[in-house]
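Please produce the structure of this protein holding heme C.
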Amino acid sequence: MPLHLKRLLLTGIVIISLFLLLKHALTPESFGQYGHYRGNSMNEIAALPIHFVGNNSCVSCHDTIVSMKSEGYHSDLSCEGCHGAGYKHVGDPKMEQLIKPDSREFCAKCHDINLARPEKAVTQKELKEHHSDQKCVKCHNPHQP
Ligand code: HEC
Ligand code: HEC
Ligand code: HEC
Ligand code: HEC
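Below is the modeled complex.
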């Protein structure tokens, strides 16, 4: 075999061995256990603390508000989207109070004029000119606005 081909072959072998060595050293232990990901990541994700519980978890104690909301304009909103994560509150309602977001700024996040948002998605209003001295919840029930 000519010398330059031998050198090429040798370089090839070195590169491939280096690749295999690094792959062996750098691949996490549980990779490929179930599929093309780390098997251990399943346990790690399952061990994360729970924060959100979903609207159905509020029915047992707040059924009037849940049914009121389901009939109004806000029916598609999640309770926890306004009140914050409810896992702790469901476990101990007296000790773990949720926030009541009754400021104008809170409602304005969705309802103020916003050119970046399609107008069909949420009704936009010039809130600076809409009863600007009073809280929205004085006139609009947040659960059935
Ligand atoms: C096991 C019954 C129970 C469940 C389930 C429950 N709550 Fe409550 N919630 C209560 C009680 C009792 C109070 C009144 C606590 C107080 O005033 O001491 C309360 C109060 C509240 C308040 C008012 C807090 C305040 O400052 O006045 C909000 C808001 C609230 N709950 C939202 C929710 C949401 C959202 C869910 C579902 C994620 C939920 N709750 C699930 C029992 C429950
Ligand atoms: C658009 C935001 C929004 C959503 C969605 C929402 N809430 Fe509220 N909620 C509020 C605000 C604001 C108040 C405070 C009202 C006030 O001070 O007059 C409130 C008050 C409450 C209170 C205190 C009692 C009362 O009537 O003032 C409870 C309990 C409550 N909400 C439960 C719920 C539950 C359960 C859901 C889901 C079915 C829900 N909320 C969905 C904004 C919201
Ligand atoms: C997370 C976004 C969001 C927040 C926060 C929110 N809303 Fe809404 N609101 C909506 C959506 C979505 C609708 C239904 C689509 C529509 O009609 O705009 C709606 C509808 C309404 C309507 C009826 C509009 C119409 O078309 O006649 C009123 C009034 C209203 N909201 C008031 C409030 C008030 C008051 C607050 C604060 C307590 C609030 N909203 C907070 C998303 C939001
Ligand atoms: C003094 C009472 C009052 C207050 C405070 C108030 N509103 Fe209204 N809102 C009304 C009335 C009445 C209407 C229906 C007539 C109109 O469109 O002006 C209305 C209409 C709306 C609509 C529907 C607009 C449409 O064109 O269909 C939205 C959205 C709304 N308000 C959001 C809010 C928000 C968000 C706040 C707080 C930042 C707020 N409102 C404060 C009385 C009030």
